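User: Watch each token:
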Amino acid sequence: MSSPRACPGVHRAGYPFAAGCASRWTPGRARGDDGRRAVEHRSLIAKYGLLALFAGAGIEGETVVIAGGLLAHKGLFSLPGAMAAAAAGSFLADQIFFALGRYFRDRPWVRRVRQRALFERALGLLERYPIGFIFAFRFLYGFRTISPVAIGTTRVSARLFVLVNGVSAIVWGVVFTGVGYLFGHGFEKAIERLLPDRHAILILAAGGVALAALVGGWHWWRTRTRADA
């Protein structure tokens, strides 16, 4: 058996001896492993986080953007960068939906959307508040995807839609990213009570962004597949 002098720190801490010091678990080694994992997580999020936020903002919406604000609060990427990615993703998605309504209104997926009750409600609101509705639809539950398609089928000019949609996307991205950023500390404390691992919040937030983007993409693909069937 090794003498206490061989591994005095381990002996004083009360850890059992094994065949030798090199094969023995130590707190320092565990902390080192945790540190390396944390660096890997941070590096991965810093490299792909804004791209995932961009895609998730366009496909899923507010949940992803709030999670992006939380990651910005943790310092994984800058808050302005998160806001810009969220706004750009939302803007691009709505421009695509507008183009579908404008140029592909006879395709099965667009015809399916036009048969929904919300489509007529969107047209009614657009007729009453043309600029106001273009600005506000992304903030209205249930109207975010269907509204740009409906607007695309009307005589609203593409230039007007681009301008108002761009301003709305910027406001939307700033607001919901800011919510995640401002309430990040309180949310982090709540998670730490449930999961003592101090790196768990990074994994949960990044996983939430990725999962929401995947679920949103799968839902969109399934809808398109059923419409084309």
Q: What stands out?
A: The CA atoms of residues 4 and 11 lie 6 Å apart. The chain has eleven helices and no strands. Confidence is low (pLDDT under 50) at residues 9-19. The longest helix spans residues 27-59.
